Amino acid sequence: MRRYIGKIKDNPMHSDAKYLRVFNPFAITTRSKEEEPLLKYADLAAYAVYQCANKTPKNFSIPEPRYFVELSKRFGADEAGTILGNGLKTIHTLEQLNLDSDIEGLFRSIKAAPMRK
After folding, report:
1. Could you tell me the pTM of the whole model?
2. Of 18, 22, 77, 99, which is least surrounded by CB within 10 A?
C-alpha cells in the first residue's frame, strides 16, 4: 500500500491524485477489527457495494444490490441527497465499470438523507 501510494504521488494519472502530494504513506498503520470496531462498518459498506457488481459463479453471476439499498440511507450525500460522487465515489465512470443497467441506474438515482449545512 505504501509503495502504491508513493507511485501515485510521483506520477499522478488522475486529477484527484494531486491531493496525495502532502500525504505521508509511512503514516499508515494497521489495526484489527477488535482494536478499531468502526472498521466493521467500513467492511460492511464495502461488501454491500461490491455485491452490486459481484458476478461470480458462486452467486450464479447475479449481482445482489439489496445490501446496498438497505444501507444506502446511511451513506454520505450532498444537499440534494445524492450519494453518487459523495458517499459513493467511483474511481472510473459508471460506464467504464460495465455494470448491469439496473445497477448503474440504482447508483445514479439512489438517495440518502441530505447533508445539512
Report:
1. 0.72
2. 22
Among 105, 100, 91, residue whose Cα is nearest residue 53:
100
> What phi and psi, each to the nearest 5 degrees, are found at residue 88?
-130, 105
Which three-class secondary structure state does DSSP give residue 88? strand
Handedness of CA 56, 57, 58, 61 (dihedral sign): positive
45-64 residues labelled b (16+ CB within 10 A) or e (exposed): beebbebbeeeeeeeeeebe
User: In this predicted model, what pLDDT tens digit does every residue of 36-52 receive, in sequence order?
Assistant: 888 889 899 999 999 99
Residue 107 to residue 5: CA distance in whole angstroms: 27
